[in-house]
Design brief:
The protein is mainly α. It has one domain. It is about 60% helix and about 0% strand. The protein is built from 5 helices and no strands. Helix 1 crosses helix 4, helix 2 packs across helix 4 and helix 3 packs antiparallel against helix 4. The radius of gyration is 12 Å and the shape is globular. It starts with 10 loop residues before the first helix and ends in a 9-residue tail after the last helix. The mean pLDDT is about 85.
């Protein structure tokens, strides 16, 4: 899947997003750099089980995401600490 903003999303991640209309809408609304961070977060999973766990929580993460300045929480993105 390629998002409306031109970000390539892996097939398994796209399936999760496409299976939840609210999550897909929320993901499409993200800035391209935030979309890429989610793609990288799923892609950097250390194994099959970790990737499955991240995909299982993806819809919830995406729908709850609110962009905050880095200095408010000490990291450039909430997933970078995960």
């Amino acid at each position: 899947m390629i998002t409306d903003k031109g970000v390539a999303v892996p097939d398994d991640m796209a399936s999760v997003l496409e299976g939840d209309a609210a999550a897909l809408t929320a993901f499409q609304a993200l800035r391209p750099d935030d979309q890429r961070i989610y793609v990288e977060w799923v892609g950097k999973s250390s194994g099959v089980q970790e990737r499955a766990d991240r995909l299982a929580g993806l819809a919830e993460h995406v729908q709850a995401y609110q962009r905050r300045p880095a200095e408010e929480h000490g990291s450039p993105h909430p997933l970078s600490d995960v």
